[in-house]
Amino acid sequence: MNKLAFIGGTGVYNPEILTDLHSETIETPYGTAKYELGYFKDKPIVFMARHGVNHTIPPHKINFRANIYALKALGVSSIVSTTAVGSLNPDYKPGELVLVDQFIDQTKSRIGTFYDGELHGVAHIDMTHPYCPHLRAAVLDAAHREGIVIHPEGTYICTEGPRFETPAEIKAYRMWGADVVGMTNVPECQLAREAEMCYATISMVTNFAAGISKQSLTHREVVECMNQNIESFVKIITILSQEFDPDTDCDCRHAAKDFGGFQL
Fold it and tell me: Which Gene3D superfamilies does the record match to this protein (predicted)?
């Protein structure tokens, strides 16, 4: 039986909809990963706090490979993650959600692949559609049913962090076509695809980015906005937990078929 997993970003540390919750660790070839296993009614669901339950892991030190490998080993087939983002698009306002459909990678020091010539050999995986269309459709439907403002598409530019971006950088990213900026969606998204898992990200706009906002950016501002609007996430993941079938086949589950599939 395949499982659904949620990865909580900044401000999302508690899977409050789950029962019989207990914390576990799992060893992977890439290090130790921590997760929580619980149930929504009778369905097992895995939750991971990307930054740790007390936000102790900065974005550039997250062990993305261990996290995604662990979820694969736990039988997870579909992942919905949350991210806090700054907006580069004046139509995407603080408190609103964005269901991103493309990303631009501006990270510098992260290992972004399982296919590095070692444990899994070498492979080149298509990323024409980085986020699972099937899972995105389910998220979009849940949001609409709850009357939640969610933009159905957007380009996420991922920076290294942990600092916020300069106004000059934001100006350049806008010229490239980016709509929102964050620090965590890469390589998480591409690792999930390499591991042949469905993956979608719900991004919450917490502020306008540097140079667009007239005020200096603070982490407190991000967390406060997430706390004020987290109910939108809860409503969406409640519907997904109840209705989404992680056993449904999808092209994402065969992304590495030309290379023999992803093997644990």
Answer: Nucleoside phosphorylase domain
Query: Does residue 53 sit within a domain?
Result: yes
pLDDT per position as a tens digit, 74-86: 999 999 999 999 9
Q: What is the pTM of this model?
A: 0.94
Percent of the chain residues topping a pLDDT of 90: 73
Could you list the residues known to form a binding site for phosphate, using ranges: 10, 50-51, 83-84, 184
Tens of pLDDT along 186-223? 999 999 999 999 999 999 998 898 888 777 767 777 77
Q: Which of 91, 86, 100 is nearest to 153 (CA)?
A: 100
Rounded Cα distance between 47 and 37, Å, is 6
Q: Which domain holds residue 44?
A: 3-253
Residue 263 lies in a domain: no
Distance of alpha carbon 64 from alpha carbon 57, whole angstroms: 11
User: Where would I find the H helices in the chain?
Assistant: 64-73, 133-145, 167-176, 185-194, 219-243
Binding site per annotation, positions for substrate: 183, 207-209
Q: What residues form the annotated binding site?
A: 10, 50-51, 83-84, 183-184, 207-209
Q: What is the DSSP string of 179-199?
A: -EEESSHHHHHHHHHHTT-EE
